[in-house]
Amino acid sequence: MLHPLITRLTSQILDGTPLTEEQGRLLAGLESDHTTELLFAANSVTRAMGHRPFTCSITNAKSGTCSQDCRFCAQSGHYTTGSPNHPLLPLDELIENGLAMHKAGASCYSLVTSGLMLSSDEITRICACIETLRSRTTLELSASLGLLNNDYARRLVQAGLTRYHHNLETARSHFPSICTTHSYDEDIATIRLAKEHGLKICSGGILGLGESWAQRIELAATLAELDVDTVPLNFLSPIPGTPLEASPLLSAHDALKSVALFRLMLPQVSITIAGGRERVLGDYQSWLPLAGANGMMIGNYLTTKGRNLEADLRMLEQGKWI
Ligand code: SF4
């Protein structure tokens, strides 16, 4: 039998009334004895909303030497991490990577760049890549290029971009402990601008940055208020050389419970699981659809695509939870 609070709030969601932040905090505060019931509720909401499985993929189009000081990030120029540094990849390489991910079965392909904001010339190259992939594939095309302005958003949409990715990373109340070089409001302004230009929004964060359960719910409530379309959830995999290098890994229990809470707070959105899942969840990765996730990033960075792709596609095929 489900805990009465879970039963009541699941009915509320299925009747079309979203959870309040306070209700989310009540669910997050339930004892771990009730976590499988939360997963069950999250799965029933996923199914009732008709979410379908999907796969997304990214290319690390520009890497490292970032001016920002995000304390989890291997690409920040403030830390020495040994992560790859390269300028924006040549156009033919960006296109080839997209064609490879299309062939591998990805539904969505995202060009991801480090740095606060690209230059106008870099946007021109990204637009050329998008135009080519739009004419040669059925991929949904996404980009994660840092902050946007009106001119960049207009050119990207004209080239065929349909989705913009910009993570909030964590709750507003926790953000100053994670990044001091730009503000939460700048991130929110970019999300609103992309939305104004008709782009679908993919925005989520990283769990395990030292945030509380209440702050996880706060992030979910902010994303609900922004009316985003897709929420990518990452689990921190601490990077040596960053200030968070000694952070404890989330337990598989807490990771799955978090996914379930995001599903209950955000019933209509697609929830996709990205970085850190292998390390944090291990054998429990196959529980992700049961916990309310319906998307999976495949291929990660292209150096590991062979093994990950096969294992991930098999896992998605075998899972009948959604
Ligand atoms: S802005 Fe992006 S690339 Fe730069 S440090 Fe922050 S997370 Fe890393």
Automatic annotation (TrEMBL):
[2Fe-2S] cluster binds at residues 110, 142, 202. Pathway: Cofactor biosynthesis; biotin biosynthesis; biotin from 7,8-diaminononanoate: step 2/2. One of its GO terms (biological process) is biotin biosynthetic process. Residues 48-277 form the Radical SAM core domain. Its cofactor is [4Fe-4S] cluster; [2Fe-2S] cluster. Keywords: 2Fe-2S, 4Fe-4S, Biotin biosynthesis, Iron, Iron-sulfur, Metal-binding, S-adenosyl-L-methionine, Transferase. GO terms for molecular function: 2 iron, 2 sulfur cluster binding; 4 iron, 4 sulfur cluster binding; biotin synthase activity; iron ion binding. It catalyses: (4R,5S)-dethiobiotin + (sulfur carrier)-SH + 2 reduced [2Fe-2S]-[ferredoxin] + 2 S-adenosyl-L-methionine = (sulfur carrier)-H + biotin + 2 5'-deoxyadenosine + 2 L-methionine + 2 oxidized [2Fe-2S]-[ferredoxin]. InterPro entries: Aldolase_TIM, BATS_dom, Biotin_synth/BioAB, Biotin_synthase, Elp3/MiaA/NifB-like_rSAM, rSAM, rSAM_sf. [4Fe-4S] cluster binds at residues 66, 70, 73. Binds 1 [4Fe-4S] cluster. The cluster is coordinated with 3 cysteines and an exchangeable S-adenosyl-L-methionine. Binds 1 [2Fe-2S] cluster. The cluster is coordinated with 3 cysteines and 1 arginine. Its EC number is 2.8.1.6. It comes from the Bacteria. Catalyzes the conversion of dethiobiotin (DTB) to biotin by the insertion of a sulfur atom into dethiobiotin via a radical-based mechanism. Homodimer. Belongs to the radical SAM superfamily. Biotin synthase family. HAMAP family: BioB (MF_01694). This is Biotin synthase. It comes from Desulfomicrobium baculatum (strain DSM 4028 / VKM B-1378 / X). The gene is bioB.
